[in-house]
Specification:
By secondary structure, the chain is of the alpha+beta class. The chain has three helices and eleven strands, in the order H-E-E-H-H-E-E-E-E-E-E-E-E-E. The structure holds zinc ion. Zinc ion (ZN) binds next to loops.
């Protein structure tokens, strides 16, 4: 009888250890899943197209280099309050770079006063440097503007701009970094 009891204890012990390692294995997978999660920052899905980003930063790295407000707009697709940003009424000559990766995105000579409280441009410096993606997040169809190098959310583009393009790129100041001409 003592032998059976001994064997029972051994088997229970083994099962317990196995269970524990099973759970820790599960945790390992959970961590791997969250790593996969951060890789979402490295591509933009446009319809069926997967556009890989040149700037390969994960979520933690973005949190380190961006201010909390910039992070909210660029990485979480937030919107700054109108008339609150640094550049809506800036009409100096210069270029506007992506605040995330430094890519040159807009030129002051295409900036106009749309009266909406956000920096507005009638075109981007180079269309191949941005991604225009359908956005249904507010229950209406809008077109989101994204930096193609880092995947940062910039703002939206609307077809109610001035000539010559008729477009209005409505961009958050927090997504931009202005550089005065001749600097
Ligand atoms: Zn960028």
């Amino acid at each position: 009888m003592k032998v059976y009891l001994f064997l029972f204890l051994i088997i229970s012990g083994v099962l317990l250890v196995f269970n524990k390692s099973f759970f820790s294995l599960k945790n390992k997978y959970a961590i791997t899943d969250s790593l996969k999660e951060t890789k979402k920052n490295r591509a933009v899905i446009k319809g069926k197209e997967v556009i890989k980003l040149k700037e390969e930063k994960n979520d933690n790295e973005w949190r380190k280099i961006l201010t909390p407000d910039q992070y909210k707009v660029l990485r979480e697709k937030g919107t700054e309050r109108p008339f609150s940003g640094e550049y809506w009424d800036n009409f100096e000559n210069g270029i506007y770079k992506c605040a995330g990766c430094g890519e040159i995105l807009f030129n002051s000579n295409t900036k106009f006063d749309a009266g909406c409280g956000w920096p507005s441009f009638y075109e981007a410096v180079d269309k191949s440097k941005i991604i225009e993606n359908d956005d249904y997040s507010l229950g209406i169809q809008r077109v989101e503007v994204i930096c193609k190098k880092c995947g940062g959310h910039l703002g939206h583009v609307f077809p109610d701009g001035p000539k010559p393009t008729g477009m209005r790129y409505c961009i958050n100041s927090l997504s931009l970094k202005f550089e005065r001409k001749g600097k």
